[in-house]
Design brief:
The strands form two sheets. The chain has a six-stranded parallel β-sheet with strand order 5-4-3-2-1-9. It has 228 residues and is α/β, with parallel strands linked by helices. The longest helix is centred in the C-terminal third of the chain and has 21 residues.
Length: 228
């Protein structure tokens, strides 16, 4: 395994491609094939939500199949017990729909990267104080680019903001302009029943969409959250 810390690996993965693949509903039997195709497309951050069938088996299988520059973990993490089980399965990334600081601290104590869900500045600052590595802006349908921009202004420089919910290859740019540093990609990337080849084709479109957003916001690659 890499000699880098999980936090360092999270930063490196985010710098390479700050798109989190959310594989809600995936099964262990198909997880490796889909994980490998996502990796080939450039993805380095993969989460299996815990309301998927046998999620910890899928997480363990994907983790074992991918190189060390990828981080694999769980989404919809709600409790400290789930954090422990995730760690035991080899997970390195804890993604939450909420900002429970007890769960955030548990994930950090277990040596994992943590991206909790926030909507307000109050939640954002509390999550950062608890050790969050990035903030999941969720649901993005509720937090418009204008609202994101207002929140971005008051947060510490370099805070990583990842809108999640309703993101497609075609609607990333307004969020990037407002200060988003990446995205979580759900049903627009993967739905249960999709083949690895189908997921790969969609993944390529998302990567292309992100690259286009960088050409229109060149500072994003060197100063996360800054677009001018």
């Amino acid at each position: 395994m890499s000699q880098l810390t999980v936090e360092q690996r999270f930063v490196a993965a985010s710098d390479q491609l700050p798109l989190v693949a959310i594989l809600r509903g995936i099964t262990p039997g198909e997880s490796v094939a889909i994980g490998l195709r996502l990796y080939e497309a450039g993805f380095r951050l993969i989460e299996v939500p815990l309301n998927s069938p046998e999620p910890f088996k899928s997480i363990a299988a994907i983790r074992q199949a991918l190189p060390d520059d990828a981080l694999v973990g769980a989404g919809t993490v709600l409790t400290v017990d789930q954090v422990r089980e995730l760690k035991d399965s080899g997970g390195e990334l804890t993604v939450m729909p909420h900002a429970d600081t007890v769960v955030i601290r548990a994930a950090k104590a277990a040596g994992m990267a943590c991206t909790p869900g926030v909507v307000t500045p109050t939640e954002a600052f509390a999550a950062l104080a608890a050790g969050a590595d990035a903030l999941k802006i969720f649901p993005a349908e509720l937090v418009t680019p204008a609202i994101l921009k207002a929140i971005r202004v008051v947060l510490p420089k370099g805070t990583r903001l990842l809108p999640v919910g309703g993101i497609t290859p075609d609607n990333m740019q307004p969020y990037v302009d407002a200060g988003a540093t990446g995205f979580g990609l759900g049903s627009a990337l993967y739905k249960p029943g999709m083949t690895a080849e189908q997921v790969a084709a969609v993944a390529v479109r998302f990567v292309a969409g992100w690259r286009v957003s960088l050409t229109l916001c060149p500072n994003q690659s060197t100063e996360p959250g800054i677009c001018h």
